[in-house]
């Protein structure tokens, strides 16, 4: 009986030390700064894209862009101007792109399935602040995010908080409007699940990973995206003007990137380490068995 009590105490102690794991995995899609698994991508203008770029259709690259990452495409590749990338690789295997499409859809469905801490009815068109309510805060927006002028959407949370924001419509920014993180919240802990399209024609900064399971993206102007944008729709997407993309992938409290050297390669998936709680329980069960065996031996020698 004493052993059972001690075992229970140790189990409770171990459970209290577990770190909450992210409920959503981006799979290999999380290895891209910009990805389309339906329509092609046109990249032109100047400035830098930091991270990998992939499309299951045509890739058109022009201007004086610098892509500090690998590019992958399925169909045609056209390259004019002085733009550069780390590599240009054609991926003809349709299953490769189908798997990336599934990654986007699965992550989107997982985000939608989590009960919301707060539901916002209608569109967000004015200065709005969303504050963390739990370690993982989920917000459902029934309309669209449409920021213009100098309007901002501010996400306020600590470095250990996570935001999942489901948007029923489009996300669009213009002027100097921005999506701002405060309180220590970081872009790798922010996920927007956008059922519509994403467009940013302004000069502001946005942060987070944008999932577009049915949509496309148009990033222009001189805006900055500190995050990633992953599209599953069939329309063409573009990054033009002097817009900048700095790759930061949503990871929540666990890392999803299995092989950053090959953005979509799943041949060597990361095997998660066993839970520390499970290992402790197995050790305790073994210890209890040893004690029982010792008692049995002691009784048999009396």
UniProtKB/TrEMBL annotation:
Belongs to the ice-binding protein family. Keywords: Signal. It comes from the Bacteria. Residues 1-21 form the signal peptide. The keyword Signal applies. Pfam families: Ice_binding, PEP-CTERM. This is Ice-binding protein C-terminal domain-containing protein. The keyword Ribosomal protein does not apply. InterPro entries: Ice-bd_prot (IPR021884), Ice-binding_C (IPR013424). Residues 270-287 form the Ice-binding protein C-terminal domain.
